[in-house]
Amino acid sequence: MPHSYGIRARTRGLFSKGFRQNGLPSLRGNLRTYRINDYVDIKVNGAVHKGMPYKIYHGKTGKVFNVNPNAIGVLVNKQVRGRIVQKRVHVRVEHINPSKCVENFKNRVRTAEKEKRDKNPKKDRKRLPGKPLPEKVVSGKSEVTFQNPQFHKEIF
Fold first, then answer.
1. How many CB atoms lie within 10 A of CB 151?
2. Torsion angle defined by CA atoms of residues 90, 95, 97 and 99, in that order, rounded to the nearest 10 degrees
3. Phi, psi at residue 113, to the nearest 5°?
4. CB-CB contact of 87 with 42 (8 Å)
């Protein structure tokens, strides 16, 4: 068969849906409100052909810069050779989900503000890397036995 370089080339597994997930999406995604500066994940829905972004943007997280009646404008970082370029992509609502990439940050800010309001003594809120695990001793058999020993006298 001839080789294809089309716009949806090599997307057989990329745009396919999981087991028992086929068919059109529910209206829940269409009724969601997106605002400018929200973070969204681009996840292409293969059942909806309109407003489908190019395959390179599948799985990327971006920031909303424009809201239209039928599409959402998303700023996405794309690597082009040696540099990272900020691209502006308009994607239909069926192909995006709200991102949870800033949830931990927002929770930290909320707890910090609550501590400030409660007049608690100031403490260090910096995140630290996990400490190394403590040492442990692995006990093994005292004698090593080989399954298939094949020793040659001239080697040893």
1. 7
2. -60
3. -65, -40
4. no
- Asked whether residue 86 is assigned to any structural domain, the reply reads yes
- Find the domain containing 58 and state its range: 1-118
Beta-carbon contacts of residue 99 (< 8 Å; ≥ 6 apart): 38, 39, 40, 41, 61
Instruction: Specify if 138 maps to a domain.
Output: no
Residue type, 17: K
Distance CA 151, CA 156 (A): 8
- The domain that holds 23 is classified in CATH as 2.30.30.70
- What are the C-alpha distances in Å from 57 to residues 40, 62, 76? 12, 10, 8
> Residue 70's closest CA among 48, 94, 88?
94
Radius of gyration in angstroms for the set of CA atoms belonging to the chain, rounded to a whole number: 27
pLDDT in tens, the chain (156 residues): 678 899 999 999 999 999 999 999 888 888 999 999 999 999 999 999 999 999 999 999 999 999 999 899 999 999 999 999 999 999 999 999 999 999 999 999 998 899 888 887 877 888 899 999 999 988 877 777 777 777 666 655
Three-class DSSP category at 116: helix
